[in-house]
Amino acid sequence: MKKLAKKRELLAMDLTPLIDVVFLLLIFFIVASEFKKNETILNLSLPNSASLEKVVEKKDVLIEISKDEIAYKAKKIDFEKLKEELEVLKKDAALTIKIDKKVKYERVVKLLDILNSLSLSNIQLITKENS
Fold it and tell me: Does 37 map to a domain?
């Protein structure tokens, strides 16, 4: 007679539901988290001010000026291209300008001349609050 060999079945835990739960949690946290785009590209040292800080709204157009560079909507640009970009804006568009405290006055005047030539006057200058 032949001996019937009993095959032992290994008991293993099914990991499929656990993997599904992990992926669902991962998707939830990715969708629920808020991705904030950093709109500043230049590393600026802003001058101090005693006035209250105004919150910059997302719809505001951001212009940054450092000692050697200028950025518009977080992209480095020169003054000629900046003028071309600003020409398409509405006259009442809100402009937010961040100027490094070491920038020469000549560069600030050049920017203000461009804004004046395009009749853009809704301007706010961003500073640091005194501590």
Answer: no
Beta bridge partners of 84: none
Tokens of 112: 């203000």
Helix axes of 105-117 and 79-87: crossing angle, nearest 10 degrees: 30
**Phi, psi (rounded to 5 degrees) for 126:** -95, 135
Split into its structural domains, the chain has a count of 1
For the chain, state the CA radius of gyration.
Answer: 29
Per-residue pLDDT reduced to its tens digit, 57-86: 556 788 999 888 999 988 899 999 999 988
Q: How far apart are CA 125 and CA 7, in angstroms?
A: 80
The mean pLDDT value of the chain amounts to 80
Give the pTM.
Answer: 0.59
Q: Considering the domain boundaries, does residue 28 fall inside one?
A: no
Sign of CA dihedral 96, 102, 103, 109: positive
Range of the domain at 74: 48-129
